[in-house]
Amino acid sequence: MAQVLHRCATATDIGPETPTATSGIASSKRMLSVDVLRGLCVAGMVLVNFPADWVLRYHQLGHAEWDGPTATDMMFPAFLLLSGFSMVYSFASRSQRGETRGSLARHVLLRSVILLGLGLILNAFPSFNWHMLHIFGVLQRIAFCYLVGGLLVLGTSRRRVRFEVNIWAVVGFMVLVLAGVWAAVRFVDVPVYGSWRFDHNGNLGAVIDRAIFGNRHLSDWGGPERMWDADGLLSCITSIPNLLLGVLAAVWVRRGGSVAKTMLGLLVLAAALIGVALLLNPYLVINRKLWTDSFTLLSGGVSLGIFAMFYLWLDGAGNGKKKVQVMWWQTPALVYGSNAILGFVIYTLLLGFHGLYRLPGAHAPAYWLPGATYAKLCQWIDPYNVSLLYGLVAVGVVMGLLWPFYQRKIFLKL
Question: What is the pTM of this model?
Answer without folding.
Answer: 0.90
